[in-house]
């Protein structure tokens, strides 16, 4: 995806794979398991990971299928390189979800995890995913439930809004973060047997600093927002967020849920 073609928020994902992992990877790695289950990924298939990032879902696909049966595409060169380094043998490419660099009908399934809300043209992305799978092949996508299900981000933006009513809470209005939106997209793309579901995961933190520090890495819209604050406002936000979490002194756990839909190519 060229910089000019990115949806709002996509340009904030310019960090390394390791930095991304500490922020969102601790959730997306766990989400990959129920998502691959929902898509029916099983040995013998060849599967494409659309918008792979540094490889959370790709890793799960390799575990199930073997690297030679997995391909990945992402617009961020540093994420493509991370996939190549971490998962040798995966057919990893730099490219846009709206213009997948693969021939018609190559894959048994095409999966997009936490991607649709960042593409510039979701309808074209769905059509492209349909194009690259064989007739009867599976197209699947999931996106966090931004209204209440993704507690890490919801807690952050609620704390930010408590201090600054003009904080750019993109998560609440981001497309595909509500039930049924992905299914509607798939139906418009001509997919059949469309089904929707909700996927749930949880992750643990050692303490509040383990939760707070990744936000300082400028990862995603939340990280970009913090980076633009002066030191005093940043410290006030830190304290507001700590209180919202109940001022934890030790380990704690947060849940997250994602909306999911699957469909089959005719």
Structural account:
The two termini are 27 Å apart. This protein has 266 residues and is of the alpha/beta class. It has a domain of 184 residues: Rossmann fold. The protein has a 7-stranded mixed sheet.
Q: Key features?
A:
seven-stranded mixed beta sheet, globular, Rossmann fold, 266 residues, alpha/beta
What's this entry about, in short?
The protein is of the alpha/beta class and 266 residues long.
Write the layout of secondary structure elements.
Blueprint: H1 17-38, E1 47-50, H2 56-65, E2 70-74, H3 77-86, E3 91-94, E4 107-113, H4 122-132, E5 133-144, H5 151-163, H6 170-173, H7 181-188, E6 192-205, H8 208-212, H9 220-227, H10 231-244, E7 252-264
Parallel strand pairs: 1-2, 1-4, 2-3, 4-5
Antiparallel strand pairs: 5-7, 6-7
Helix pairs in contact: 1-2, 5-10
Q: CATH superfamily name of the domain at 3-147 and 171-202 and 258-264?
A: Vaccinia Virus protein VP39
How would you sum up the global shape? globular
CATH 2nd-level architecture of the domain at 3-147 and 171-202 and 258-264:
3-Layer(aba) Sandwich
Mean pLDDT: 91
Strand elements, count: 7
Low-confidence stretches: 1-13
Order of helices and strands, N to C? HEHEHEEHEHHHEHHHE
Helix content: 25-40%
CATH topology of the domain at 3-147 and 171-202 and 258-264, by name, is: Rossmann fold
Instruction: Kindly name the structural category.
Output: alpha/beta
Q: Radius of gyration, rounded?
A: 18 Å
Q: According to CATH, what is the class of the domain at 3-147 and 171-202 and 258-264?
A: Alpha Beta
Strand content: 15-25%
What is the tally of helical segments?
10
**Distance between the first and last residues' Cα:** 27 Å
Biggest sheet descriptor: 7 strands, mixed
User: Looking across the biggest beta sheet, what order are the strands in?
Assistant: 3-2-1-4-5-7-6
């Amino acid at each position: 995806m060229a910089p000019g073609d990115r949806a709002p928020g996509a340009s904030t994902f310019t960090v390394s794979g390791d930095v991304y992992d500490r922020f969102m990877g601790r959730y997306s790695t766990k989400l990959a398991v129920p998502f691959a289950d929902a898509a029916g990924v099983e040995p013998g298939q060849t599967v494409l990971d659309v918008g792979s990032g540094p490889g959370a879902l790709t890793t799960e696909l390799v575990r199930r299928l073997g690297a030679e049966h997995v391909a990945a595409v992402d617009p961020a060169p540093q994420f493509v390189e991370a996939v190549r380094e971490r998962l040798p043998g995966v057919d990893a490419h730099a490219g846009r979800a709206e213009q997948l660099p693969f021939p018609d009908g190559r894959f048994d399934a095409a999966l997009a995890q936490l991607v649709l809300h960042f593409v510039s043209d979701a309808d074209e992305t769905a059509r492209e995913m349909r194009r690259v799978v064989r007739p009867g092949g599976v197209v699947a996508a999931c996106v966090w439930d931004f209204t209440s299900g993704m507690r890490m981000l919801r807690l952050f933006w609620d704390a930010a809004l408590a201090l600054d009513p003009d904080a750019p809470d993109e998560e609440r209005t981001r497309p595909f973060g509500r039930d049924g939106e992905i299914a509607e997209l798939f139906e418009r793309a001509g997919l059949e047997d469309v089904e929707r579901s909700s996927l749930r995961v949880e992750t643990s933190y050692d303490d509040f600093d383990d939760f707070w520090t990744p936000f300082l890495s400028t990862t995603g819209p939340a990280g970009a927002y913090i980076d633009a604050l002066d030191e005093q406002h940043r410290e006030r936000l830190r304290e507001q967020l700590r209180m919202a979490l109940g001022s934890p002194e030790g380990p704690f756990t947060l849940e997250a849920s994602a909306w999911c839909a699957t469909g089959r190519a005719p």
